[in-house]
Amino acid sequence: MLTEKFLRDRTVSLEPAERATIEGAISEVLTLGARHIIVREGERLDRSLLLIDGLMCRYIDNRQGHRQLVAMQVPGDFVDLHGFPLTKLDHDVATLTGATVAVIPHVALDRIVAEQPQLCRKLWFSTLLDAAMHRAWLFRVGRLDAMGRVAHFLCETEARLRAVGLSNGHRFALGLTQIDLAEICGLTNIHVNRVLRQLREKRICIFRSSVVEILDADALARRGEFSSHYLYLTGGD
Predict the structure, then answer these.
(1) Domain encompassing residue 57
(2) Are the C-beta atoms of residues 54 and 99 closer than 8 Å to each other?
(3) Low-confidence ranges of the chain (pLDDT < 50)
(4) Residue 20 sits in the same domain as residue 127
(5) What pLDDT, on the 0 to 100 scale, is given for residue 64?
C-alpha cells in the first residue's frame, strides 16, 4: 500500500476507508533521481506529491546561490500538500536522494474536500505538522549553537523515521552529505565536520557512510534541547 506510512503513529490517524480513498486518488507513481528539482518557486501547481521512499527537501536560495533547507521530507510525508490551496510555492522542492513519489491531482483533492470533511481535516492536520516542524527549525537555527543544531536535527529525524519503521531508535540510514547538513543547520561544512567529530569523540553519536548511530540518546536530546511533542507522535513526550 503506497500510503501506509502517511500519518503512521501520529495522534491523528486514518481509517482504512480513508486510506483507500487517498490510494484511489493517486494518478501515477514517479521514480526520481537524487538532486532532482521537481517544483520551482512560483510554478503553478495542479498536483501534490506523497513521498513513498527516499528523502526530499524544500529550500530557498539567496542572491549568491547559497541554499538554505527549510524542511526535509521523509517517507510518508506529503511534500507539497500546502501547494493545493496556495496553487504555487514560495520555495523550490527537490530530492536529496533517489526517491519514489505518488502523484495526487488537485482535482482529486477537491473531491475529498467536498465529500469527506473528516479526511479533509486529517489532511489539514498533516500540513499543521509541517508548520510545527517549521517552528522547531526556526528555534533550532535561531537559538541553538552549532552542536545543538546538529543534535536537534538528528533527534528529530530519528523520531520521524522511527514512526514510519525506518529507525530502531538507535540506528538509521540518512543519505545526506555534510553539505546538506550544513544547509539544514545554517552552518559551514567545516563547522559541521567539527561538530560530528565532537559528537563521535564524546560517544554520543556517530554519522558515517550515510548511517547514523546514536550511542547516548539522552545526551543527544539534552544537547539539542529536543522534545518530540511538536511531532504529535502516539508515543511522544
Answers:
(1) 16-136
(2) yes
(3) none
(4) yes
(5) 83
